[in-house]
């Protein structure tokens, strides 16, 4: 790999900080919803969600995997949904604000030095982009239908609204800096690998390009943005690093590979409980189930 050992050591620390911050956030929000969730159970839940999100189109399996992890930890479904909903409620506006700040600080340098190269590569690779657009439309249709199938498992939970409304302000306020740590740690992975090299491009370009590639995956139809992210990276989205496959593999390993591997280990260890829990619990609360009323 073309990144130095110092960069890999920083990435390992960043991944650990990210997992710790997200596990602490989920634990605090679950406690705020009136239930206990240990740090190890919270960590396992987030790793399951990471693996499900990274391996599914449009991250569709991420939240069901998170729900399964919390239910296996003994957290009732209303409190589970309240904690997850509040997590999203805090994280998405914070992501929007962070996007504005990154754009204001780094977009001018990125647009001046990197955008022309990337746009040229995009123009020459239009057949691939057209295919990705078709795949995006298919994935949206599939994802909506899949959400409808599992929707019965979440819409008819009587105490969800109560758990959501009774969330105290303390966990919500604490989740703000924890969410920021999550965003900064994930965005910093690529700069850690790049900026420790002697031939590193402009730091603002690398940070902004990393932010685009990391959070652009949320809107891409392929698992972990596979295909489009690689095209963006090799096309010059983070400066004059196009063609550096070793750096790309190193970054993908820390950003996606490590959480997926750890999440699959957790899933394998809990495979019997997961296989037994999911069909039974979803049927139990579906509106057409005899037990749903």
* N-to-C span: 57 Å
Could you list the spans in which at least 5 consecutive residues all have pLDDT below 50? Answer: 150-159, 280-293
Q: How big is the Rg?
A: 20 Å
CA-based shape: globular
Order of helices and strands: HHHHHHHHHHHH
Number of domains: 1
Percent range of helical residues: over 70%
- Structural class of the secondary elements? mainly alpha
Specify the biggest β-sheet: none
What is the residue-mean pLDDT, rounded to a whole number? 79
How many separate helices? 12
Number of strands: 0
How much of the sequence lies in strands comes to under 5%
Oligomer: single chain
Please supply descriptive tags for the structure shown above.
globular, disordered C terminus
Structure description:
- There is one protein chain.
- The protein is mainly alpha-helical and 293 residues long.
- It has one domain.
- The chain is 77% helix and 0% strand.
- Helix 1 packs antiparallel against helix 8, helix 4 packs parallel to helix 8 and helix 6 packs across helix 12.
- The protein is globular.
